[in-house]
Specification:
With 465 residues, the chain is α/β, with parallel strands linked by helices. The protein contains 14 helices and 21 strands. Strands 14-15-16-17-18-19-21-20 form an eight-stranded mixed beta sheet. The longest helix has 15 residues.
């Protein structure tokens, strides 16, 4: 449901190979050699309880013994060991994993999701060939040639076709920004990856090979959004019933018929020839939720409108940003930021209401933007992360309180069980609001400058003091 923490899978600064091996020809050995020789500049650690070293590289007996948490773990161990490995990685602080291993039952897939959920650790796979990020020199895959660097992202459900396309591209000097073998898509799926790639500055176009779509509505909204930002090219297999059944068996997906996929592509935007015969199911996108529009007043009596954001609101951001202080920008983005590009703002204003929400506070004529509150749900749609910013010259007018109450009410109605956020320790105004709203506030063990805030839902909403 979200791109949260996917950057740890696709832009890692450190990597661990779990199941590294010295046995030539084994999956663990091939992975190890591909990663060690690919040119990746970050730390690479190896884990295998049966080895103290592999070649010239030290091998650790356990995840707990690692000197620090790897940002990405690539796992090639027997299926029944993976849930415990995921849990150990989550406790260590890892937030991304690629599971190469195949042979997962539905129960075992659920077990790895359950192990990852408390840590929002994102998983690519299982049953995949791995990933390559040529710009980083990261070749964390089994059985694929190292691709050249470029600006085309390639996502595939088929390892065999992926190998063929990479060989074809190498002969023509075509490079890639990312190559992702998606496998069974137990956690991270094609919709999540499309959302990530749509905003990725190193990617100018996206190539997809799909056998089935496991979450048609989610895919459709992600594809539509991505196609607004850059070309999306789709190759679809399973055009006859036998091929569709084979694809469904391979991936365990829910939607395999070509007619259903064709309908999704036509609604979403990416180009694909659509068959004229056969069923044409309708896959609905949630319309603009006008029931969440609300007129209210600030503490100084000004009448304002709070409503869901619209793409047309993009033109309001220029004046809004010009009235934000450097401190307020730093409080919102947890780092200084001097420029807000058209592409950056467009990603904020063009959302699918079935998968994300942002509320804006506007003057009565809807010509001035006063503040924005945003919700990003975790993959299980049980918890969400919030962010809020109010124009600096309007502090103390109650707009922040209005937006927060509205956002909390929305999260409750959506069935979320928890709302959380990261707040800089010097952002005392936000921390005071969180205390009064009933948020639990704790120090971030990984960054002393950040406070973790969490609110259990449903929760009573307190009035501003």
């Amino acid at each position: 449901m979200t791109i949260r923490n996917i950057e740890h899978c696709l832009r890692p600064r450190s990597v661990a190979v779990i199941g590294a091996s010295s046995d030539l020809g084994s999956v663990g050995n091939t992975l190890t050699q591909n990663i060690l020789t690919g040119g990746f500049q970050g730390p690479v650690t190896l884990v295998n309880p049966h080895h103290s070293s592999i070649g010239e590289h030290r091998c650790f007996k356990s995840i707990e013994a690692l000197p620090e948490a790897p940002e990405l773990a690539v796992i090639a161990t027997p299926p029944d060991t993976v849930p415990g490995i995921i849990e150990a990685l989550g406790k260590k602080g890892t937030r991304g994993a690629v599971v190469i291993t195949a042979g997962f039952s539905p129960a075992l897939k659920q077990a790895i999701l359950d192990a990852a959920q408390p840590y929002c650790l994102r998983i690519i796979g299982p049953n995949c060939l791995g990933i390559s990020v040529p710009e980083l020199g990261l070749n964390a895959n089994f059985g694929l040639n190292a691709p050249n660097a470029g600006s085309l992202a390639f996502l595939s459900q088929s390892g065999a076709l992926m190998t063929g396309i990479l060989d074809w591209a190498a002969a023509r000097d075509i490079g890639f920004s990312y190559v992702v073998s998606m496998g069974d898509m137990t956690d991270v799926d094609v919709g999540d990856l499309l959302d990530f790639l749509a905003a990725d500055v190193s990617t100018s176009a996206i190539l997809l090979y799909l056998e089935t779509i496991p979450a048609a509505r989610k895919f459709m909204s992600a594809a539509r959004s991505a196609a607004r930002a850059k070309p999306v090219i789709v190759i679809k297999s399973g055009r006859d019933a036998a091929a569709a059944q084979a694809a469904a068996t391979h991936t365990g997906a829910l939607a395999g018929s070509d007619a259903a996929v064709s309908a999704a592509f036509r609604r979403a935007g990416p180009p694909k020839e659509v068959e004229k015969d056969g069923p044409n199911p309708r896959l609905a996108i949630r319309p603009y939720p006008n029931q969440w529009e609300r007129w209210t007043e600030t503490l100084d009596g000004e009448r304002i409108l709070v409503r869901p954001i619209k793409p047309a609101d993009e033109h309001l951001y220029g004046a809004f940003v010009s009235k934000l202080s450097p401190d307020d920008i730093r409080f919102r983005f947890l780092a200084p930021r001097k420029e807000f590009s058209h592409k950056f703002i467009a990603r904020f204003t063009q959302i699918d209401y079935a998968r994300a929400m942002a509320f804006v506070a506007l003057n009565k004529d809807e010509t001035e933007l006063y503040g924005v509150a945003r919700l990003s749900a975790d993959p299980d749609y049980l918890s969400g992360e919030y962010a809020i910013i109010v124009r600096s010259d309007l502090k103390g007018t109650g707009i922040g309180w209005i937006l927060m109450r509205h956002l909390i009410h929305y999260a409750e109605r959506e069935g979320l069980k928890e709302l959380s956020g990261d707040v800089l320790e010097h952002n005392t105004r936000m921390l005071d609001m969180c205390r009064q709203l009933g948020f639990e506030i704790t120090a971030d063990p990984e960054d002393v400058s950040i406070r973790k805030v969490r609110l259990k839902l449903p929760a009573p909403i307190q009035d501003a003091a």
